[in-house]
């Protein structure tokens, strides 16, 4: 029975699983090799695109670069330059009259302005009193028709004379040295007429001694010639004998006193001839003085009867100082000195003051 059983077992062999080796079961076992790395990824596909033309944009007209702004502009014959604008600095804190930059922000403040330039020096002189013995009132000079001839004219005017003397009428004459005159036309002789002393006398050139003004062009009559020859010259001379009685200490040569009036003759359309005085000159003891009017003082009325002649600054003292070159008599001497120390402008016309002339007579007033 036993054999049959073993045979039956051989006839049907059983398949047994092979034992799995254990890496740590015995020393005769070998380790497994490490796994191989994964293959590299395939390269990215290379895509080829056809080229496209660049985009087209609408073209714009090109303009030149603008020039910098003009720094000046011209109006007529004057050129004005632009002034750069600067920001106004903040007001600095008070410092008792001294400029102190603020702490921490000194760069935002400008330095103190420069002081104004000093005022120019103004001379203060006292006028020298000169006695004029003969005075021609220049605003009364007229041209009158001569009864003896057509188109001939005579000279007439009003004058004052403290002594005897003579009047000499020159036409187209030029002033020379030592109070002499030379005429441009030898055929035209000067006319001399004597007079006696007196106030507000009327002078009229003798009839028959007039001049034919129609012979000369109007342009030659209305202005001096290139040689400074004036169309009309009136010379009023005091007599030397009368001066020797009035001034015994004067020398005969130095006692000559002459007032010269230089004038031109104007005419407009059918209007009569008119005399325009250019200047008046006074020769005294060999010295030549040019007479000029003073504005702001009336000599025809006394000071008590002519109010409003006080100094325009203090309103108390009389006016006795003339401002040159504008010739305004408007201040007393003390106010004039104080004025030029602060300003060099005339208080009447605001013109620059170049000189002060203090004018006083024997009584101490103008």
Description of the molecule:
One of its GO terms (molecular function) is ubiquitin protein ligase activity. It comes from Acorus calamus (Sweet flag). The protein has 366 residues and is mainly beta. 8% of the residues lie in helices and 29% in strands. The chain has helices at 2-11, 218-221, 240-246, 333-340; strands at 72-75, 78-81, 123-126, 134-136, 142-145, 152-161, 165-175, 181-183, 191-195, 198-204, 211-212, 229-238, 257-266, 274-284, 287-291, 321-324, 328-331, 355-358. The strands form 4 sheets. Strands 7, 8, 9, 12, 13, 14 and 15 form a 7-stranded antiparallel β-sheet that branches. Strands 4, 5, 6, 10 and 11 form a 5-stranded antiparallel β-sheet that branches.
Structural class by SSE content:
mainly beta
Oligomer: single chain
Order of helices and strands: HEEEEEEEEEEEHEHEEEEEHE
Put simply, the count of helices is 4
Low-confidence sequence ranges: 1-10, 23-28
Mean pLDDT: 76
N→C terminal distance: 189 Å
Give descriptors for this structure.
EC 2.3.2.27, MGRN1/RNF157-like_N, about 10% helix, about 375 residues, metal-binding, seven-stranded antiparallel sheet, transferase, disordered N terminus, single chain
Write the layout of secondary structure elements.
Blueprint lengths: L1 H10 L60 E4 L2 E4 L41 E4 L7 E3 L5 E4 L6 E10 L3 E11 L5 E3 L7 E5 L2 E7 L6 E2 L5 H4 L7 E10 L1 H7 L10 E10 L7 E11 L2 E5 L29 E4 L3 E4 L1 H8 L14 E4 L8
Parallel strand pairs: 3-18
Antiparallel strand pairs: 1-2, 4-6, 5-6, 6-10, 6-11, 7-8, 7-9, 7-12, 12-13, 13-14, 14-15, 16-17, 16-18
């Amino acid at each position: 029975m036993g054999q049959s059983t073993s045979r039956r077992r051989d006839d049907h062999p059983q398949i047994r699983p092979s034992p799995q080796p254990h890496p740590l079961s015995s020393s005769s076992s070998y380790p497994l090799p490490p796994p191989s790395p994964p293959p590299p990824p395939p390269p990215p596909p290379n895509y080829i695109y056809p080229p496209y033309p660049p985009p087209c944009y609408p073209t714009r007209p090109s303009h030149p670069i603008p020039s910098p702004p003009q720094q000046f502009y011209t109006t007529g014959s004057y050129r004005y330059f632009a002034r750069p604008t600067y920001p106004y600095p903040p007001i600095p804190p008070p410092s008792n009259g001294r400029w102190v930059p603020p702490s921490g922000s000194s760069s935002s403040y400008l330095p103190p302005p420069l002081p104004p330039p000093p005022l120019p020096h103004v001379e203060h002189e006292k006028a020298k009193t000169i006695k004029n013995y003969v005075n021609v009132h220049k605003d009364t000079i007229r041209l009158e028709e001569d009864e003896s001839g057509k188109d001939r004219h005579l000279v007439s005017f009003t004058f004052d004379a403290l002594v005897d003397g003579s009047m000499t009428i020159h036409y187209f004459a030029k002033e020379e040295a030592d109070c002499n005159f030379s005429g441009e036309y030898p055929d035209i002789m000067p006319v001399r007429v004597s007079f006696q002393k007196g106030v507000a006398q009327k002078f009229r050139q003798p009839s028959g001694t007039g001049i034919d003004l129609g012979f000369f062009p109007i342009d030659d009559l209305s202005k001096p010639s290139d040689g400074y020859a004036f169309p009309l010259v009136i010379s009023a001379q005091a007599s030397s004998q009368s001066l020797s009685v009035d001034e015994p200490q004067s020398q005969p040569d130095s006692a000559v006193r002459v007032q010269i009036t230089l004038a031109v003759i104007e005419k407009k359309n059918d209007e009569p001839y008119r005399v325009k005085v250019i200047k008046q000159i006074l020769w005294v003891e060999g010295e030549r003085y040019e007479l000029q009017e003073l504005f702001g003082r009336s000599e025809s009325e006394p000071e008590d009867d002519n109010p409003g002649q006080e100094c325009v600054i203090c309103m108390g003292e009389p006016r006795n100082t003339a401002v040159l070159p504008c010739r305004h008599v408007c201040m007393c001497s003390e106010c004039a000195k104080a004025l030029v120390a602060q300003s060099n402008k005339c208080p009447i016309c605001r013109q620059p003051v170049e000189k002060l002339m203090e004018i006083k007579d024997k009584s101490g007033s103008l």
